[in-house]
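Example record

One chain of 82 residues, shown exactly as stored in the release files.
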Amino acid sequence: MSSIHTSLCSAVRIDVKAVRFQQFTARTGEPDCMIATQSIEVTLYDGKTFELLIHLEDGCPTLALGEPLVMPPVPVTEGETA
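Predicted structure tokens for this chain:
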């Protein structure tokens, strides 16, 4: 399996969607199975969105949405204006 590394700049919103369960109909002669997916949707400063869909294995922890990020103030050096 390959790896993907990327970065999304200037995110203004992150939505973690609920886990979705779907029955998957297998090929003839094989048993049907259930799959679980969860997605993350990122909205960027310009309104464009990026969605990542994750197929979860049985026993995998699901994603949880945390508290909004609050940026700390940038320290001002003595003699500079804020």
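Notes: The longest strand covers residues 33-44.
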